[in-house]
Design goal:
The chain is of the alpha/beta class. It has six helices and 17 strands. The protein folds into two domains: 176 residues, FAD/NAD(P)-binding domain (3-Layer(bba) Sandwich), CATH 3.50.50; 103 residues, 3-Layer(bba) Sandwich (FAD/NAD(P)-binding domain), CATH 3.50.50.60. Helix content is 22%, strand content 28%. Strands 1, 2, 3, 4, 5, 6 and 17 form a seven-stranded mixed β-sheet that branches. The chain has a five-stranded parallel β-sheet with strand order 8-15-9-10-11, covered by helices on one side. Bound molecules: flavin-adenine dinucleotide.
Length: 314
C-alpha cells in the first residue's frame, strides 16, 4: 500500500484505504451511506450493478412511510441522490472476497482492492430458483424474476406467477395490467401476502389462482410455451407465454463466508440487529437473519450500522 496516496493492490486510481466500505447498493447501503456521510465517516459504497437493489426492481412501493405510492426506481434514485448530496461516494464494483490484512479488513472487488477499518455488509438477496427443468433454459425467453423489467413484453399474453408471498402477489397485480390472463400458482391453500394485496388479486378480473399446486417443469421450443403442474387432481399441462418466479430469496453472502459467521440458510448471523461475529463488521437489510425484509427495515438497519461504526470510531 502507498501510504501517501492510500492506493492498494497495484490498482492505480482504483481501490483505496478508507474508514468504511459498504458492500451493496440497495436501500440498506444507501441509508448507511447517508448516515455515514452525515457522521463525516470516509466511506465508499461498492455496488455491482445499479443502486437501489431489489427495491429498484419493483413497479411501485406504497408502504414506505411518507412516500405515498412511488415507483421503486424513483425511491432508489431519491435515496442515492440524498446520500450523494451529503457526500456519499459510490463505485461500481462487485465484492468477490473479504479477509483481514493486519488490523484492517481487506475487501477484494472485481476491479480493485480496498482496505477498511469497518465493513457494512448490505448485499441483500437475489431471487431463489424453483429448480425445475426448463427454468434455466428459458431464462430471458419467457422465464423472469422481474415483472417490472419484463411485464411490457407480455402484453396480451397468458402469464404465470409462481409464489404466494407479498412479492408474488404484488408483481402479479402489476403483470395483470399488461397480460391478457394471469394464473398464479401457489403450493399452499392460502396466501402469505398482506391481506390487502391478496384481496386485490382475488378480485382482479383477469387473474386466477391455482392452490395446492406446484410447477414441475417449464416447456417450450425457442421460448416458454407451457408449464407442467402437480395439482391435487394429478399432473396437468397448461399453455402459458411467460413464467414469473417469486419463491423466496438467496442471501448474497458468498464473499463474506470466511469473515463472519453465517446461518445455514446463508444469511449473516446477527447480534443485536446489525452486529456480526466480528466487532468491526456490521450487516444490514435482507442479507441478515432479521425477520421482516422490507425497504423500511433495510433503511433502518443501514442507519443503525453506520451509527454503530460512528460510535466505535469515537
Ligand atoms: C418484487 C419485489 C417487490 C418488493 N416490494 C416491496 C414493497 O412494496 N415494499 C417494501 O418495503 N419492500 C419490498 N420488497 C423488498 C425490498 O425490495 C427489500 O427488502 C430491500 O430492497 C432490501 O434492501 P437491501 O439493501 O437489504 O438489499 P437489496 O435490495 O437486495 O440490495 C442489495 C444490493 O447489493 C448488490 N450486491 C449484491 N452482491 C454484491 C456484491 N458481491 N458486491 C457488490 N454489490 C452486491 C446488489 O446488486 C443489490 O443492488 C420487494 C422485493 C421484491 C423482490
Amino acid at each position: 500500500m502507498d501510504l501517501r496516496t492510500g492506493l492498494v493492490g497495484g490498482n492505480p486510481g482504483k481501490g483505496r484505504t478508507t474508514d468504511l466500505v459498504i458492500a451493496g447498493g440497495g436501500p440498506a447501503a444507501l441509508s448507511a451511506s447517508l448516515y455515514a456521510a452525515r457522521y463525516s465517516i470516509d466511506h465508499v459504497v461498492l455496488e455491482s450493478y445499479q443502486p437501489g437493489g431489489q427495491a429498484a426492481l419493483t413497479a411501485w412501493i406504497e408502504n414506505y412511510p411518507g412516500m405515498g405510492r412511488i415507483s421503486g426506481g424513483d425511491l432508489a434514485a431519491r435515496m442515492k441522490e440524498q446520500a450523494e448530496r451529503w457526500g456519499g461516494s459510490f463505485e461500481t464494483a462487485t465484492v468477490t472476497s473479504t479477509g483481514l490484512r493486519d488490523d484492517l479488513i481487506e475487501v477484494k472487488a472485481d476491479s480493485a482492492v480496498y482496505l477498511a477499518r469497518f465493513l457494512i455488509i448490505a448485499t441483500g438477496a437475489a431471487p431463489a430458483k424453483l429448480g425445475v427443468p426448463g427454468e434455466d433454459r428459458f431464462y430471458g425467453r419467457g422465464v423472469s424474476y422481474c415483472a417490472t423489467c419484463d411485464a411490457p413484453f407480455f402484453k396480451g399474453a397468458h402469464v404465470m406467477v409462481v409464489g404466494g408471498g407479498d412479492s408474488a402477489v404484488k408483481e402479479g397485480l402489476h403483470l395483470s395490467e399488461f397480460a391478457d390472463r394471469l394464473t398464479l400458482v401457489h403450493r399452499r391453500d392460502r396466501f402469505r401476502a398482506e391481506p390487502y394485496l391478496a384481496e386485490k388479486l382475488l378480485s382482479c378480473d383477469n387473474c386466477s389462482v391455482r392452490w395446492n399446486t406446484t410447477v414441475s417443469a417449464i416447456e417450450g421450443e425457442d421460448g416458454v410455451e407451457g408449464v407442467l403442474l402437480e395439482t391435487p387432481e394429478g399432473e396437468e399441462r397448461i399453455d402459458v407465454d411467460g413464467v414469473f418466479i417469486y419463491v423466496g430469496r438467496r442471501p448474497a453472502t458468498e464473499a463474506f463466508s470466511g469473515l463472519v459467521e453465517l446461518n445455514p440458510d446463508g444469511t449473516v448471523k446477527t447480534r443485536g440487529i446489525v452486529g456480526t461475529s466480528r466487532s468491526n463488521v456490521f450487516a444490514a437489510g435482507d442479507v441478515t437473519d432479521n425477520e421482516l425484509r422490507q425497504v423500511v427495515t433495510a433503511a433502518a438497519d443501514g442507519a443503525r450500522a453506520a451509527s454503530a461504526v460512528f460510535n466505535l470510531m469515537q
